[in-house]
Amino acid sequence: MSLVLQLIVYGIATGAIYALIALGYTMVYGIIELINFAHGDIFMIGSMVSIAIFNLLGINSDSHPTGWFLAVAMILSCVGAMLICAVLGVVIERIAYRPLRNAPRLAPLISAIGVSLILEDVGKLWKGNTYIPFPQIFPNITYKAGAISFSSINVFVLVVALLLMVALNWLITRTRIGRAMRAVAQDRDAAALMGVNVNRIISTTFFIGAALAGAAGFIYGLQYGSTIFTLGFNLGLVAFTAAVLGGIGNIVGAMVGGILIGIIEALATLIPPTVLPHGGSAWSRAILFGILILILIFRPAGLLGQQTPEKV
Amino acid sequence: MSMRLLKFPDERETRLLFVKWLVALLIPVLAFTLWDGESILNNTLLTLFTGFTVEGVTTIGFVLSTVFVLIFYAVTFALAGYFLAADSGRRSMIELWIDVVIFTLVPMLLVILTTSLVVGLALCIVVWPIYFWVRKRVVAALHYAPPDPLDEVMELSPAQQDALKDRGRSGGFWFGTAFSLIWLVIDLVYLFSGGLPTPVLIFVILRTILFPVFGLLLGQLGGELALRRTLGALQKKADAKDKNAPAVDLESEIKSLSPTRAREEVKELVPNDQPMRSRGAQLFYLALLAAFVLLYPALDPLLFSFGTVGRISGFADAGYYVILALGLNIVVGFAGLLDLGYVAFFAIGAYTWALIGSGQFTVLTGLQVNPQVWPWLFWPVLILSACVAAFWGVLLGIPTLRLRGDYLAIVTLGFGEIIPIIFLQMDKYTNGTNGVVGIFSPHFPGINWTTFTPVPYYYLILALIVLLIFINLRLRDSRLGRAWIAIREDEIAAASSGINLANTKLFAFGAGAFFSGIAGAYHAAKVGNVTPDAFSYNDSIIYLAMVVIGGLGSIPGVIVGALVVYAVNQLILAQLDTMAADPSSVLHIVKVLAPTFTFDSIRNLIFGTILVTVMLFRPEGLIPSARRRRELHHVDQGQDVEVGSLDVPPGTPGFESEIRVE
Does A106 touch chain B (CB under 8 A)? Predict the structure, then answer.
């Protein structure tokens, strides 16, 4: 039992990262109905940018900064990654998606796939094709609550993710920009008639989504200690599954979906090799997709999505 | 046949026409002759009649190459006749000559300069759009308005038809004469400077006499074929088709179409403004292409001096991409079901033959496998893998039936991920990460067929491609095909018209998976081993890119798309790397400036850029289906919206009005 709870705790920590990435996917889909395949790769670039900023500040994998310097470095790295990813997201939207806004559905999708491939190669050319260590500078203290142990890094990751999610929720529900974003997502032409600058709102959406992915890159590096250029595709797919699970276009759904996926992935390791060859951990992606497919068969709108009838 | 023929035409217009086409055709023919044609013919003669041998080339190879060269000349003679008969004479000479140079000389030059077929052609694909763009600018700057094609739509009187036939005949004759004379002069230069071996001398004399004769006969053929496409002949064909159908007046039908539509219909008619682009000429091009592709293994060692086996092996590998593109074209192009996990069915097909046709079969069932007898099973298992893959296609299609667009894509993506994981983890049956090795090549009576002999594989894949193109065409033009297109355009409307959505979609998945099953079994046999990590999401994207770049729903388009994507992905970058490593080539500068740089490492970068660029500038693909082009480029260069004729009853044979409804 305590093993299960332990796994759930790990799952929540991982799931928070998935949730942050899933938010970007769901926001973009909600507003322009495009699966942004490049989003996972923005996350990967974010983690690499964090490493680069650390290196600029003189911190590499075996440094041990403390105190103010540590705090400043972490803030700089996180904010820097967020900003650069945000700008990258906006640039991608301008170049690769905006001209195709009125094209048939397949064109921006293929374009997104093209951008994803480009970003992967950029990552590979920049940092090579092996695992790159992320400076493990956050003090790693293990806490115990009964039989369950978790580290301070997990707590930090969770706190950062929750803060960002709360901030996003506040932005969407309580500000004018958020209202404009919801309006454009609901009906683009009506929003334009209401005086919303649709282009700017779409760019803002990409800005925010990509910033969240950048933050996710930063905390991923802190938690797992390394990054690689194929990270974006792998995690991006899982995060997209989370977004669909929660109901695509739905912000809270993405958060819930992300955490759920994290928990499911953790619990899947419990499956013994007698049921599935090599045990559940080797099959985690297959299980994930299996669950996605089941959800889509029985509840296509996702857990929290609304069933919208298709109008003729 | 009168002696009048042998006099060069004296009316000024016809004379100019002759000059125009003779020069236009002589340019590529002479270029080809001087490049390789002459050497192939001479070498064949020497091999046959003296003891001359060339390393790496068999006598059969020479003979087959000669056959190709002769077919090339025959097609050119016939084309000379066809063009002269079919041309209306309104386009200028210079324009035609520039076109010919750009489309025939430039590829030859680039292939020679880069000593590589693939890189040369790839550079062409870069050069041609630039030419088109420059041409568009020049045309706009000169305010040149091309003549209206509709002016040519008229019945030809029998006298005019005879005149055309004569023109064709004498066109072929004069082309044959001019060509053989010029070649004679070139050979005389050789004779006086170094002497020619006897067989070649005899050939020169024979050729000078015979080519005008062949020109005459083939020119007549070309002229006759041109005459079959005059308005009168087409009218007769339409009239003869169905006695009970209402009388069809082609001329007034064409005149009542909108300009864009009329231009398409008129491309087939004779007389024609641009006979090089007409459908009649396309038949000749296809014949030449078919001869080239069929005889390529014999030609390759003579065109390029080394690397034949590697190149043919590469093309044999490219073949399965074509089959995959054709299959995915059914799912994505015809039925509009976005499938991102197509590699799963490919894997299923590959593993089917891998598990049956190798030592793994012994592991699975305990039966001993006789390596002499077992490979014969390849032929039935080819069909079996296709059926197994089709079965799984239907099975994996069932969950997707209620899903729209992007959700469908994600579910198929999921299956594309799950199936290779299954193959990886069930290693009791599939041998896990190490995969299945030692897969048998097929056996065929009289042919030595192993993994290292690419030529039988080349012909096998050619046969499979031809068969599958035929199946694809029949599917597209059947009720099922039209049902797929209806579903793609509007599901709800299709369902309201009585189409069973579930069955049709499942059929689409099944048919697409059938094609990939065949490709999978072929690939397993060719490569000889199958591992789960050979099938990944990246491959699914490549297949999708092939279909989209080529042109969704268009069969020639996806074939070209498959070849282009394969070339970019596998061939071009590897060739660029080999060229950069060679100190004598231009590209070596790159190696000097950045020693660790390889072109191969930026493959995804280039591929991704190509994808984005194609989507931004030509989303309908390289060779779009006619329907798609109309969808994506509504406004036709300043033409006003025209309402097509509403008086013609629907269901008139071979007819489609374009009505824009705002």
Answer: yes
